[in-house]
Each structure stands twice: as structure tokens, then as C-alpha cells.
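@channel sequence for tomorrow's demo:
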Amino acid sequence: MKCNKVRERLLTDYRDGELDRRECEKIDSHLRDCGACKKFQEEILKFAVVSPEGSGELRPGPEVWDRIRSAIFEEEPEAGWLTGVSERLRFLLKPAPLIRMAFAVALILVTVVMARVPGDMPEQRAMSDYLTEQAVFFSALGSGDSEFPDDDGGSGDLGFLDFV
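C-alpha cells (generated this afternoon):
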């Protein structure tokens, strides 16, 4: 056998006792003839970790089992009726992004329809401007942006919506 093959086996299968008798004999024969591989084996034995099989069975102490039992059987505090109601209504406090987007699209459609209605009455223009502003606002809200354009072309902060 070649040294690199013997050293590989010494690190793995030979030490674990997983080689057949014939291959173990080949390695033993090589170790008798090769001083470098014999020294390599001695170094392995000096620094290698003992396998769990040779060290006996490891058992956790009773305090470990007590902690496991207490974690398994830990009772959650019983919630009052108000907690159950608030959990059922929680989805209303945080509207889904799909609902926000649908609302923004509806506002845009209303704006487009209002803009195409014949006539140029001041009330119509004011309503159209208002709906356009609301559509921009809700599209910014639905996209998660924290800013939206002001009337002067700047950017306004939506800081009051940080809780959403």
C-alpha cells in the first residue's frame, strides 16, 4: 500500500474499526515497514479524540430533564375575552397591501372618469385635483414609501403613518 492511502485509512476507517481483516493486515504490514507512517499513527493516537463508543454512555443529569419537562408542560396564561376579540379584529388595523392597491386604482379610475366628463366647471377641476392628489397619496402609501410629492413639487413626509 502507498503511504497516502495508509494515512487516509489511519485517520478514518482503521481507527473506527470499520475495515475488513484483510485490509487491516495490509495496513499493519505497511506500518511495520514504514517508519514515517508508524510515526503518523502515533501522532494520531496522541491527539485524536476518543470515540463515544469507548467512553461509555453519556446521560444528561436530572436538571436537564426537569428543564425539558417544564418547557413541554408550561401552561400559557388563559387569555380574557377581550384578547380573543382583539386578535380576531387585528386584520382590520393593518389593511393588506392588495386592499390598498385596489383603493388606489379605484381613485385613479374615478379621477380619469372625472377628467373626461365634459365641461370645465371650477368644482369639477377642484374635485379632479383632489382625487389626483389622493391617488398619488395612496399609491405612495401602498408602495411603502414614506414620502410623497407636495403641491410645490417637493417631497412631503408621511411621518404620521409610521404606525401602519
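heads up for whoever presents: Residues 68 and 74 are 10 Å apart (CA to CA).
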